[in-house]
Design goal:
The protein is an alpha+beta fold and 330 residues long. It has nine helices and 18 strands. It is elongated and about 85 Å long.
Length: 330
């Protein structure tokens, strides 16, 4: 730990990330020795005066107060301070203990103040919801999707959101050119400035389709370089199977779920089955693997699962039966 970081820590001029590192270091033998030595030096300064000797404080009540404070900040990182077992120098160790307590709680308070409140939006199966974010960007979430983000972004701060499911993003450009980053559960990150795009992120796979503007994809350590997409690009990534490809598509087809129709363009029946399972929460069984590899092109109404199934049956000459939550396609 450097003197510069420590001095800025005690001067309350440190970032939350640096504060976390300092607090972790204070929990090491080296950190505790540094803290005791620093407070010893402060006790020896002429400005330090006391009118009466201090008796050793009771350890249990102090630890009870520390634990209560830590529990109230349970969502944030915590500092574990070992209880003092020796009180041979009551004044010195009282100052060390109380000083460490105040430093720790003060840092946690500072960390909390700097962390914006978070919001989580969740859609049920088969329901679509449109959200307007604090920066003016608009996100439409498909069924069974979750979006997590800060309640408010500060000027100059990167706008970060976490998506699990499917969403269509209309990102507004900011005066200070703040980045907009979408984090997906499969280690794929999307960085944009001002654009519109559709994202499907389920388990280990993801599909990104750019409608207009410009985005940059980062697929983590497996990628040798970041991928720049242009309008009409579809990028598919399956992290577990290590399958990556890019192709040209009609973006309107890929985001048609926002309207009252589902449009398919060379879509395999297995992909349709996956969509029904993930978005509408039904169990789809295709009796013949060869049938699952057949491709479909066309559109069907998107009002309900029953409407979709009736449309698929009529348009593609399929025999579809439903029993409870299970759908059989023949």
């Amino acid at each position: 730990m450097t003197d510069d970081v420590l001095n800025r820590y005690f001067a309350n001029q440190i970032t939350p990330e640096e504060a976390q590192r300092v607090l972790t270091w204070f929990n090491t033998d080296e950190g505790r020795a540094y803290l005791a030595n620093r407070l010893d030096k402060q006790l020896g300064q002429p400005s330090w005066q006391t009118t009466s000797p201090l008796s050793a404080p009771a350890a249990d009540p102090l630890w009870q107060r520390l634990n209560e404070a830590r529990q109230s900040l349970s969502a944030q990182p915590t500092l574990a301070i070992r209880p003092l077992t020796s009180w041979r120098q009551p004044m010195r160790w009282a100052a060390v203990f109380v000083g460490a307590l105040l430093i720790a709680l003060g840092s946690f308070w500072l960390y909390n103040q700097r962390q914006p409140a978070e919001l989580t939006h969740q859609t049920p199966f088969g329901k679509i919801r449109t959200l307007t974010l604090s920066d003016g960007s608009v996100v439409t979430l498909n069924g069974n999707s979750r979006l997590r983000l800060a309640e408010q972004w500060r000027p100059g701060q990167a706008r970060e959101v976490w998506l699990d499911g499917e969403g269509f993003f209309r990102v507004t450009h900011q005066q200070n050119h703040e980045r907009f980053v979408v984090h997906l559960p499969n280690k794929l990150n999307i960085e944009v400035l001002g654009t519109q795009f559709n994202v499907l992120a389920r388990a280990s796979r993801a599909k990104v389709v750019l409608t207009n503007g410009k985005i940059r994809l980062d697929v983590g350590k497996r990628a040798k370089e970041k991928l720049i997409m242009r309008p009409g690009d579809l990028v598919f990534a399956d992290i577990n199977k290590r399958i990556y490809y890019r192709k040209r598509v009609d973006p309107a087809v890929q985001s048609s779920w926002q309207a009252d129709k589902l449009r398919f363009e060379d879509t395999t029946l297995q992909e349709v089955a996956d969509m029904l399972r993930e978005t509408y929460g039904v169990d789809v069984v295709i009796t013949n693997p060869e049938l699952g590899r057949q491709t479909l092109s066309g559109s069907v109404p998107n009002n309900s699962v029953e409407t979709i199934l009736n449309g698929l049956s009529t348009l593609f000459d399929l025999r579809i039966t439903r029993k409870g939550n299970q759908i059989l396609i023949q």
